What does this fold into?
Amino acid sequence: MVFPLGISAQQRTEYNRKGDEAMKRQDYRDAKMWYEEGVSYCDTYSIDRLTEIWLKDESSRSSMRSLMSKCLNCLNVLGTEQDTTAIHQLILYYQKGIGTPVSDELAEYWTEKLEQARNQLLYVPSDEVASLEEKGERMKFFIGYQY
It folds into this structure.
């Protein structure tokens, strides 16, 4: 059972590694091909790199429209799950028209969702704080990071 999972993990990092090598050569066409494999897994690293290609290489945009639309779909799914990194990307996609027409309304919607997600992470109900102070326990914070 562990063996097939290991192969899957190796394959996922392999396409990003080869995509990174192509990016170093500034071979955006080759890099796009490798990162495209990651979009089928909604790999946020691949989506981020494809977004970078979109922003850097205007000549490749017409051939990337359907691919960036797939990226947008992945980001929407991740955004609805309160993934703040994906929400940042969604705001950029709607502001710049990446994989979709420019939409200030949707960019504003996701900006509000991002603010709500941040407030949820920072908010500790006052009754919980009082309860912790009575018990003499220190408050515990959870900080997340996604590459």
